[in-house]
Write a structure and sequence with these properties.
single chain; alpha/beta; 8-stranded mixed β-sheet; 16 strands; binds nicotinamide-adenine-dinucleotide
Length: 419
Amino acid sequence: MVKHDIKDISLAKKGQLRIEWAAQEMPVLRIITERFRKEKPLKGFTLSACLHVTTETANLMETLKAGGAEVVLCASNPLSTQDDVAASLVKFSNIPVFAIKGEDNKTYYRHINDVLSSKPHMTMDDGADLVSTLHTTKKDMLSNIIGGTEETTTGVIRLRAMAEKGVLKYPIIAVNDAYTKYLFDNRYGTGQSTIDGIMRATNRLIAGSVFIVSGYGWCGKGIAMRAKGMGARVIITEANPLRALEAIMDGFEAMPVKEAAQIGDIFVTATGDVDVISKECFSIMKDGAILANSGHFNVEISIDALKKISKKRRMIRDFVEEFTLKNNRRLYLLGEGRLINLASAEGHPSAVMDMSFANQALCAEYMAKNFRKLEKKVYSVPEDIDRKIAFMKLRAMGIQIDTLTKDQKNYLESWEMGT
Ligand SMILES: NC(=O)c1ccc[n+]([C@@H]2O[C@H](COP(=O)([O-])OP(=O)(O)OC[C@H]3O[C@@H](n4cnc5c(N)ncnc54)[C@H](O)[C@@H]3O)[C@@H](O)[C@H]2O)c1
């Protein structure tokens, strides 16, 4: 059997069936896999991936393997791994996997080093942990790397910061910034799966609750839209005036987080920022308030401060920790403040990951073909890849759209024609 560090290999059959279930909702990735199987565009490349180990990721790993790549996988979050999926990938797909749900930070970073020991030519990150490890403690391996891709907003922000400072040592394609990624994955994917995660963890009624969403970016918009649809009174907290204005015109309320803290029943952060819900907020919250995060890192809720002002802590349900404050109010932190849609639910629905991971597969192919021409910068997903994926998704859904006539094309490209 291939190298691995997973929870339990006997879970493999269950994982295999769940991977097959997800595949049914991933027609775009299926088409790409079939082409990759014939053309082998990734032959000769070893690819280290650090992604949430889910059924959809398993399908992406199969696509990359069909394309001829040697693939090695670790988790991009200590709490997001689906242990049955990890087992299936090892047992039935011969893909080395290093990921265990609930692993501590030390194990998490050991697993990152395990995938890097495969001496990759390409990295595929969700949160830039492979890139940052390579640029800090594994600099000797950088010369072997031709390029990489990045899945999420937080990772892209970090990589752009590295590129601006001139320290990024290989080209990266920002998969997150494709329209066929963030407009759908961040909005509809995070929207649905975050609510799913909160409901699975708490079984609380959303209807009639005061639901606070911090951050009205692509993820926040999706979460707010779905919470409203379920009957919550949704309040947005924002730091960007444009986004706050947009929230107001979309029909939500907006106010500073310290005002919202006094009235919220359920709080969700999706900002990519630190200490969004901080110590001052906890002490004025209602008894029973629920705290969840859907941003990439577990830094959006000030957990250390919460621990400090609590006199008692206990796990009351799976993924629900009760903090009793010195004022006797109880606050409930979900999934250790880690992205709740992956901690207590299964992450985004497969149909949406179909597009995100089609971008990953086609960008890996693009990198393999074009790396010699690319600089040590962060690149957008090529427009033709983005459009092709939208087109393939529509076609898979059985939806036709109009084609511009020659006259329409000319009109849209001209500046002379007026009324
Ligand atoms: N849970 C998931 O599965 C999932 C999926 C995609 C992205 N993400 C992560 O979610 C986070 C948000 O992603 P996005 O694409 O929505 O980003 P975005 O940049 O579109 O939106 C973030 C918003 O948060 C606001 N913000 C920043 N600091 C704030 C503060 N202190 N208080 C209030 N608002 C603040 C910004 O003004 C911005 O409007 C990132 O960390 C991203 O990596 C998670």
